[in-house]
Design brief:
By secondary structure, the chain is mainly β. Helices cover 7% and strands 44% of the residues. The chain contains two helices and 15 strands. Strand 12 (172-177) and strand 13 (185-188) form a beta hairpin.
Length: 230
Amino acid sequence: MQNQIFLLLLLSLGTSSLFAQSYDYPVLYRSQFNSATAKNDFTFTDPSAWRINTQAGTLELFGKSQYQPRVRSPRNIALYTKEKVGSFVLMADVKQTGREYGHRDMCFFFGAKDASNFYYIHVATKADQNAHNIFLVNDEARRNIADTTTEGVDWGSDWHRIKIIRDIDAGTIEVYFDDMQQAIMTAQDKHFDYGYVGFGSFDDTGMVDNVVLQGKVMPTYLEQGFFPKN
């Protein structure tokens, strides 16, 4: 798979890598999804819509989740629920496997408090008020909060690299797609600080691989509640 050499170099260097030096956060999670047990790292809106493809080494969303959110928001969600994360940098290889249309998407979640309170990034073919934007779900239907966006991305049938940078103190959110120097979306918002991080789609399918999450874990004295299994 493309990016394999880069990932092997990254993993071999560990926290002394350029990636770690750039952001000075410890590595909290990384996976190439080579074992079926990797599915245990996540909480899903519908586990039956997801699988670990050990031959391809991917976390794969292959079906429609039988899940109806209380407020208008994505249906297909896989959250890494081992730790709540504050400021972070998330990198992953992602591939969209659905049909081509304007809202063809992959989503990336963070700051998740519960099923109706979180941020998500919707990366889609074509931007409009409901697509290709950064969204806030705050006990009501999602609303876009991006300060800057592009016109969309060309998913094609290839793998792409995503990088997301979140600073909870400054409230900044930056999203990179293939070009790691030029953000495709930015926002500034402080509604949520610590929360769960994850992957998914509003109502499409896709695959995730080569995940590296670096960040700051929620201090024990701030822990409260958990994201419920659905």
